[in-house]
Amino acid sequence: MGPSSCLLLILIPILQLMTPGSTQCSLDSVMDKKIKDVLGSLEFSSSPITKKLSCISVNSRGRLSSCPAGMTVTGCACGYGCGSWDVQLETTCHCQCSVVDWTTARCCHLA
């Protein structure tokens, strides 16, 4: 085998490495195109339905405080530092301490 044949055997793998693109890159580009095609085919409504969370606080004397119709309790607060409360029927705050002078219900609904 002559020197030119050896040079060719060395140059061929080097030239293959220098060619632009590889199997991995072309696979990535194919996957990117597929993803873009799928995302592009999804239909988006021009006027998306948006809802707004609307909340109020209802203060009452005593151990119970109820939300107006159509609203749900999202939190409660009790007077005299009472931290023990529960929600009854999703609309009423009930403070569980024996001495409570006020109760507040945080009431919310989606509008």
TrEMBL record:
<keyword id="KW-1015">Disulfide bond</keyword>
<protein>
    <submittedName>
        <fullName>Resistin like beta</fullName>
    </submittedName>
</protein>
<dbReference type="GO" id="GO:0005179">
    <property type="term" value="F:hormone activity"/>
</dbReference>
<comment type="similarity">
    <text>Belongs to the resistin/FIZZ family.</text>
</comment>
<feature type="signal peptide">
    <location>
        <begin position="1"/>
        <end position="25"/>
    </location>
</feature>
<keyword id="KW-0964">Secreted</keyword>
<dbReference type="InterPro" id="IPR009714">
    <property type="entry name" value="RELM"/>
</dbReference>
<keyword id="KW-0732">Signal</keyword>
<dbReference type="InterPro" id="IPR036262">
    <property type="entry name" value="Resistin-like_sf"/>
</dbReference>
<keyword id="KW-0372">Hormone</keyword>
<dbReference type="GO" id="GO:0005615">
    <property type="term" value="C:extracellular space"/>
</dbReference>
<dbReference type="Pfam" id="PF06954">
    <property type="entry name" value="Resistin"/>
</dbReference>
